[in-house]
Amino acid sequence: MAAVCQVLGTSPGFGHSISHSHVRTKRRFDPNIQRKRYWVPSLGRHVRLNVSVRGIRTIDRRGIDAVVAEILARGEKV
Q1: Distances from the Cα of 60 to the Cαs of 11, 25, 38, 75, in angstroms?
Q2: Which positions ≥6 away from 41 have C-beta within 8 Å?
Q3: Which residues of the chain have pLDDT under 50?
Q4: Could you tell me the CA-to-CA distances from 39 to 26, 30, 45, 46, 75 in Å, in that order?
Q5: Rounded distance, CA 55 to CA 65, Å?
Q6: Bridge partners of 14?
Q7: 13 CB contacts (<8 Å, ≥6 apart)?
Q8: For the chain, which has fewer Cβ within 10 Å, the N-terminal or C-terminal residue?
Q9: 5 contacts 51 by C-beta, under 8 angstroms
């Protein structure tokens, strides 16, 4: 599963792990991606979305219909 939120577009950040001896190695900061199933009344069916926890809060605020309409307008498949 790709670590990208379908609602917000949040993707991994990159940086360094720094050890006690201050040796730096590359690492990834992945967003908290969850696979959620939502009922969308406007489509009359369930959709599965890969969303970050912040994306879930966005869906709670704006409503699933508005968010799915925006995703479809971008040309993404749901």
Answers
A1: 21, 38, 11, 22
A2: 65
A3: none
A4: 40, 27, 6, 4, 20
A5: 14
A6: 28
A7: 28, 29
A8: N
A9: yes
> What's CA 39's distance to the chain center, in Å?
17
Amino acid residing at 59: I
Helical segments of 1-49, H only: none
Report the alpha-carbon distance of residue 4 to residue 33 in Å, rounded. Answer: 7
Alpha-carbon radius of gyration of the chain: 16
Q: What type of residue is 75?
A: G
Looking at the DSSP bridge assignments, the partners of residue 16 are: 26
Q: In which region does residue 44 sit, left (phi positive, over 0), alpha (psi from -120 to 50) or beta (all else)?
A: left
Instruction: Give the CA dihedral 66, 71, 4, 38, nearest 10 degrees.
Output: 50
Q: Torsion-angle region of residue 74: left (phi > 0), alpha (psi -120 to 50) or beta?
A: alpha
Q: Token match 């990159």: residue?
A: 14
